[in-house]
Description:
The chain is an alpha/beta fold. 40% of the residues lie in helices and 17% in strands. It contains 17 helices and 15 strands. α9 crosses α17 (411-424) and α16 (388-402) runs antiparallel to α17 (411-424).
Amino acid sequence: MKKIIALLLAAMMVxxxxxxxxxxxxxxxxxxxxxxxxxxxxxxxxQVTEVTLKVWAPQEDQVNEDSWxxxxxxxxxxAHPEYKITWQNGVCPEGDAAAMVTADPAAAADVYMFxxxxxxxxxxxxxxAKLGGSYLEQVQTDVSATYVNTVxxxxxxxxxxxxxxxxxxxxYNKELVGDADLTSLESILEKGKxxxxxxxxxxxxxxxxxxxxTLFGETGADAxxxxxxxxxxxxxxxxxxxxxxxxxNFVVDGDGYGNAGLKDGTVAAYFSGSWDYAGLYEALGEDxxxxxxxxxxxxxxxxxxxxxAGSKAVGVNPNAKNMKAAxxxxxxxxxxxxxxxxxxxxxxxxxxxxxxxxxDVAASIVxxxxxxxxxxxxxxxxxxxxxxPVWGPVGTFGTNxxxxxxxxxxxxxxxxxxxxxxxxxx
Length: 426
């Protein structure tokens, strides 16, 4: 044992001598070996992933290189150098999204724009991806609860990024209608003709909402609650319309009558949306006004007319082959900067709450009218499938009112028949 220990000590001394000899001519600062396996490799270019994104949007947003969609796509590429993107853009108006996408969801766009009333149809076809994480947070942070509700399904989940309101309000001629008259429909009627699309089931419910009516509960998502347009609510709403029809200045709108009349001065006010603004402003200039809907006399007291509150939104197809990139681009398309750019290019009112403080947005009569409507004088437009059988009967009821088939003599009978039709077939 002693011999083994002695041999080990001798060996250690020899190693120490060689080490000391090796350091004798070493420089003051030692250099690393020329090739050392533990050293990190030289920095290389970030990995780039090739992706193809199919995007569908309205024609007006992709006319040329300066159009909104094209500009935002270029900005997205700059913000995401990790992607080499091949864009496949197609034309799809928001109102046609349900028909176009559900025709073949697997072959449809990865990212597309849609009107929120089609939410139920798109979900039934498995054509909308649920938002979660930072994407859900973006929606809940950027827009009001009213907008969030427009893209929320009965399961409580959110399925789109709102980018614009989808509602209606009142245009008027400032030379004919003064500021003091704007809150009362009866006051406006004293100044001139008012056109209202009574036969249109998107507008007529305003009177039932003013009377306290509801569609599928307070949020429009409770199918079991049915349609509450009957009883006293229906009577008050219908009688208010009959009173208006007896006024020669109240005109049933249709075939562009209100639009043309406002332009040539024969109509003092009519009800429509942002899509009419450009033509009206060209005709009236600074004499054009726009505000949320006024009140109407109902059962002896003023009642607030309420428009449907909907939205135009960006959706992501769950069939997208590049889901991560698709979701990132949808969120980018709906960002505050992108919505402001669209407003600057096309005067489309942004949904992002903070943009209401932007000087240009605040100066827009349409943006203010739409924002006030969404916030104060609207009812959530139902997106559930049970809403589909409602449009027809309500439109027919409006037509019967306009053509004199509903009168003071049969108003109770007419309201009861509408109530049975709306709830019996649901």
